[in-house]
Design brief:
Elements: H1 2-27, H2 31-88, H3 91-102, H4 106-135, H5 139-142, H6 145-151, H7 153-160, H8 163-168, H9 172-193, H10 202-225, H11 235-256, H12 260-269, H13 272-289, H14 293-309, H15 311-338, H16 340-348, H17 355-362, H18 365-381, H19 386-411, H20 413-437
Length: 441
């Protein structure tokens, strides 16, 4: 009898494995599915690194630097982020879409790459000039001018690193490898060089080094592995890329009014200590938000191409992804809210207790941004309604600025969190209205 039982168990085990193999084959039975799975895995590893590595250095940094110096670093990064937006110029969406559509045409891809890179370098020079004028025109910036110039290295690194190219080619493995390389350099260097509060100047310097290494390697890979040939593009090609990116640029600028501007305006109206409390909570929330980011990044090129080929199938996928995204991101938000006191205490210590209330409110943007990404980027933008998406963001941004002006003087960091939640909710309602009118959902 024992032999019979053993035979049945062995047979059952074999059938289960055959069924599992069939499921795996169905998940990867087309080139698009295999590419999506590969991209998702690559971006998941990247987000894992983005989640783990900062959580290794962040508690150490805030304890060594203290709320004031950490707040200064966060404020400088928020200020410089505006120049990242200018040099990106919406290309992370518009150029990604163009590369995705034409990726089988090597000559066309080279033309797109050359045009976008030339425009980005021109915008880099313009950004440097604008930053220099601002830094030396106002005492708040001038007293820490070196911090801002070193932090500007992030912009140089972002220009060198063509994320939009790798996303369009759906080869996210390269993004993962290069970003992790840069972050590892930064992480190790933090523990080696940052020993006391006066070492705060080394933080943007080390960040600069990591960004430049990753950017240089990225360009080397583009020319070596993808056989891209850089050539002087035609005037019409440059104008075309400027026009394609302009709509998304406007929406990106508007988005920055309720993302980057949170820290920047808080720093203008309060002080570096309060900025430090808010930034600490925001860092944790962004780490939680990053748990779902790989999927949204991996799916965008697929959606762009799928809509180009089969609108009905794209609509079906959109509804399905909206449901899964809502359930998963809501669970992440609720978990973060419940454990906020424990998380803040463990990672930042008692000195950052004011960050708890901020995090308990702000963490719900994980859910709201997850929904917004599906409705806005995967829905409106991928389906060809970029103008409607831009209008949505502009309306929300105006509302957000009004809310910040009202809430910051009274509630400070908590006020920024409340304003952010309200703004994301407004965006959801407007996007739903647009999508229903276009009969997409």
């Amino acid at each position: 009898m024992s032999e019979g039982v053993g035979w049945k168990f062995k047979g059952s085990w074999t059938l289960e494995n055959i069924n599992m193999l069939d499921k795996i084959k169905r998940l990867t039975n087309t080139e698009d599915k295999r590419r999506l799975l590969s991209n998702f895995m690559s971006l998941s590893v990247l987000q894992g690194a983005n989640y783990v590595l900062p959580l290794i250095t962040l508690p150490y940094l805030v304890r060594v630097l203290g709320p004031e110096k950490y707040g200064l670093i966060a404020f400088a990064q928020a200020f410089i982020q505006y120049f990242n937006i200018l040099t990106d110029y919406g290309f992370n969406l518009s150029a990604t879409r163009e590369i995705s559509i034409h990726r089988d045409n090597a000559q066309k891809v080279s033309e797109i790459f050359s045009s976008v890179m030339i425009i980005k370098f021109c915008l880099l020079v313009l950004s440097f000039v604008i930053m220099s004028i601002l830094v030396f025109s106002f005492w708040k910036f001038r007293q820490d001018w070196l911090i801002y110039y070193l932090t500007f290295g992030m912009v140089v690194g972002q220009v060198l690193f063509p994320v939009w190219f790798f996303q369009g080619m759906e080869r996210m493995m390269y993004i993962t490898f290069l970003n992790i390389t840069a972050k590892l350099i930064f992480t190790i260097a933090i523990f080696v060089f940052i020993r006391q509060a006066s070492d705060y100047i080394y933080v943007p310097l080390l960040n600069l080094f990591g960004y430049l290494v990753a950017g240089a390697l990225a360009l080397w890979i583009v020319f070596r592995d993808f056989k891209i040939t850089f050539k002087v593009p035609s005037y019409s090609s440059l104008i075309h890329q400027l026009k394609e990116g302009s709509i998304m640029f406007v929406s990106t600028v508007a988005i920055s009014l309720y993302t980057t501007s949170n820290v920047f305006l808080l720093g203008l109206f309060t002080n570096n200590v309060i900025v430090g409390f808010y930034s600490a909570a925001e860092k944790i929330v962004k780490a939680l938000q990053g748990l779902w980011t790989p999927f949204s990044q991996a799916i965008y090129p697929i959606f762009s191409k799928l809509y180009y080929e089969n609108r009905t199938k794209a609509q079906y996928m959109l509804k399905k992804i909206l449901l899964y995204t809502g359930l998963i991101t809501l669970a992440i938000s609720l978990t973060g809210c419940i454990f906020a006191p424990f998380i803040i205490k463990v990672f930042f210590g008692e000195a950052f207790t004011p960050s708890v209330n901020i995090m308990q409110i702000l963490v719900f943007i994980v859910f709201l941004i997850g929904i917004n990404n599906v409705l806005g980027i995967q829905g409106l933008v991928a389906f060809g309604f970029a103008k409607e998406f831009t209008l949505t963001v502009i309306i929300a941004s105006i509302a957000h600025l009004i809310l910040l002006i009202i809430f910051i003087p009274v509630f400070k960091g908590v006020g920024v969190a409340i304003a952010t939640i309200a703004t994301e909710t407004i965006i959801i309602f407007i996007e739903i209205i647009f999508l229903k009118r276009r009969k997409i959902i």
